[in-house]
Amino acid sequence: MYTHIRAQDASVRLLAKLSPAKEAGRVVVLKRSYHDESYGFRRAREFTMPDYTPEQLANRVTHAPLLRYADALRTHGHRAASIDPLDLLRRERVEALEPSRYGLSDPSAQYNVDGILWTGEGSGKAKQRTLDEITGFLNAVYVGRIAYEYMDLPSKIERLWFAHLLESETTSVMHGAGLDRKRRIHGLLARSEVFDTFLQAKFPNLKRYGLEGAESMLPALDALFGAAARSDTTHIILAMPHRGRLNLLAGLLGYDPAALFHKIKGGAEVEVEDEVVSGDVLSHLVASPTLNYDGKEVKVSLLPNPSHLEAVNPVALGKARAKQYSLLKALEKGGDGVMCIQLHGDASFTGQGVVMETLGLSNLPHYTSGGSVHMVVNRLSSIGYTTPASSARSSMYCSDIAKMVNCPVLHVNGDYPEDVIRAVEIAFKYRNYFRKDIVIDLIVYRRWGHNELDEPAFTQPLMYQKIRSRRSVPGLYEDKLVSDGTLSQDSASSVRTSYKATLNDALAASATYVPPPVKFDGQWSTTVIDGTGVRMVWPGSKEARTFDTGVSSEVLRKVGKGSVEVPDGFEIHPRLQRHVKNRLGSLESGEGIDWATAEAMAFGSLMLGGCDIRIAGQDVGRGTFSHRHAMLVDQKTEGVVVPLNHALVGAVGKLELANSSLSEMAVLGFEYGASWERPDLLPIWEAQFGDFFNGAQVIIDAFIASAETKWLKQSGIVLLLPHGLDGAGPEHSSSRIERMLQLTNDPCTPQPNANVNMHVVFPTTPAQYFHLLRRQMKRNYRKPLVVAAPKGLLRLAAASSKLSEMVPGTRFQPVLPDSHPPTNKIERVALVSGKIFYELAKERAARGLEDRVALIRIEELAPFPFTYLADVLKPYTSSRTIPEWLWVQEEPRNQGAWGHVKDRLGAVLNGLGVQGEVRYIGRREDAVPATGTGKVYQAQQRAVVEGPFEGL
């Protein structure tokens, strides 16, 4: 398969030199088809602009100084534009904007501007302009209240598109617009001001993070929603921080003010029977209304957002991509029906690394959602609490970070709502044409401090003296409309009076307000299990259940063989022949099933049942440890095939292997967002090494571990964290399982039907892993799963499984008993979790102590398997001599599972009538997971392995 790329840019011209295949004016570039056409991927449109005619080219040569002058305005006009509402920016004079620098000195001199300016007029005399007219025209376009940065874009087509649009259209989007639109803008602004004033009067001690000074955000979003709806966008995924959130909810997204006041007065925003719901703070509330613009409906989903400001960005991107894929899958079209909008604060946009990580995903095949519109609500002279911009960033603009992905930026003065709307509509056109990100830098001010209880004049007295003496943004716009006759003073006042009455009524109603029952709807009402729709329930409900996870041996063999099947003529790497041979051999014998084969059979069987699988991370196609090889590359053509997608004819589900950028936080956030959107998707994030998740800790803390409790959001996300103390040193030796366990609400004592927020497991056999993956999708609810994936067991013969352990009637076992039955000779019972079991079993066998030391594996650490463990341990408590109880782990004492299991093991033993404590065997406390000194590591490990058997 080939794709055609126009030879416009330097990188493509280089390809043209290297490629022997050419067409007229085009180069033919071989593509790795799987990546370039991945599921849901929407290639950017090939949008063309007419090239210069010979006459225009000649005119550009003749008037080269004028051309340089015009390009200087396009390039540097933003530096002199009137974009600061407070006029506090200290800007140097921009010499590049002076025509005299280009030898242009006579204001009355006539110039032919054909091919130099895009005035939208015909040829001949209409193309003649005086220098004075040209200067006025360029300054009106580029040095006004909207400042454009697009000349640094590498694409000639995109630069020409902007120049054509900006220079040929009227500079006012409201030119010729009806009165209704201006009145709509006024209504949004006026109600926003009334809303903030009302909250300040009724709840003076409330931190509401009001919009005062930035009210133009509301008509900006309204215009963006409307433009999207009119272009047949059906879904908008919206992410934003706390500033102005309440105004947006009440003023544009239809949130019931009575519900808002109920929350302010201490009530819950949601109530679910038999569920423990913590709720969240006021400034994190959400809504998902369906809005109507000129008869076109668009659903706007405002996502929950934790206080780690920009963390929601990749979540929104992942949800948007998953929504696009659902539409594509259901309708065989529809990718253009979804748009992601991300609102930012200026300080966080500059300062938070997740912004860069998310931007880095924006154009990648497995991550793009066809372009996001970013709106930075930029309090230009006071960002990030009270930190001035000069101390908060090293760049001229907070938006400069977006230039890393060649993103155009539109800076606009927030004091002028009509200019703001023009910027918004230009941004939407660009995004829709090119399917790329664009930034609107909405420059405003903050009337109060970081919150309404702060005193910003402590640190910025001059600025706040100016702010407090000026008319508000809604007031300024209202004055303009009244003065030009668009609006009478009485009608302007009635908007405010009417909305204040509505708020007063809502405040009275809040006294008896009861949150409506939360129910499943849309794609979360049912899920597909083996081709049958199953009603979804809350994880803690009595109806929650797990269906059989076993699969017939016939299907397992079919899937397993298909996982290494390639098209005729496809040439795999010679070293993978052994991989294929071993897999086929184990499937034939039914024994020796390794980790990767069990995983492939889990994936394929779920795909046959209608589920999609997506596994993301670095090197996931082959597997970081070169074990998976779910994606194969032709050694002659570099064509890519995913055997499970190729071989499983008739499978409804697909496997997407997203080899990601070197990002943890954004990539995990993206997969998590996809899990919010699609209960029929098994989303997996695999860390290259187990401890690499520390770069994504915010996503785990603020979303994965707590979203169900805060927001009643279910997720089936799986984290694969390769783990093992194998001498790799401090950073590559632990999945920090202790951190994951600390994030669970797992009870310390047995509680029937405890709804634990996420499951944490450390499986030791491929069959266990197989059942865990299938269990994620074979439930009528969703729950995050953290797997300490045993890196050291991927190829260990002792850690292989039998096909019979995966057939119907088998399931995941939270506790694996000793392979040797209990006897009266048992003196010690060693409880372990994870790969160290195999070292202990080998040492026990070498010492001949199978009848004196029992080894019990706890495979699921949360929820702690009280009942399962009690059943396994009970036989050891019935002998005349009660054995000694041990907990053995590789990790230091302050790490690993010891802190989590200690009290819980005690509760199990106490329930069995056993007195005494469990003895710890493992490394001593340490500041790192493992030493980087090989000899020391080996000595420590040897001591741990010998510990359970000393003295016997």
TrEMBL record:
GO BP term (any one): generation of precursor metabolites and energy
UniProt cross-references to InterPro entries, sorted A to Z: 2oxoglutarate_DH_E1, DH_E1, KGD_C_sf, ODO-1/KGD_C, THDP-binding, Transketolase-like_Pyr-bd
Residues in Transketolase-like pyrimidine-binding domain copies: 593-796
A GO term for molecular function: oxidoreductase activity, acting on the aldehyde or oxo group of donors, disulfide as acceptor
SUPFAM superfamilies: Thiamin diphosphate-binding fold (THDP-binding)
Gene3D superfamilies membership: 3.40.50.12470, 3.40.50.970, Multifunctional 2-oxoglutarate metabolism enzyme, C-terminal domain, TPP helical domain
Cofactor section: thiamine diphosphate
NCBIfam families: 2oxo_dh_E1 (TIGR00239), PRK09404.1 (NF006914), PRK12270.1 (NF008907)
Family, similarity comment: Belongs to the alpha-ketoglutarate dehydrogenase family.
Protein name: Transketolase-like pyrimidine-binding domain-containing protein
Organism: Paxillus involutus ATCC 200175
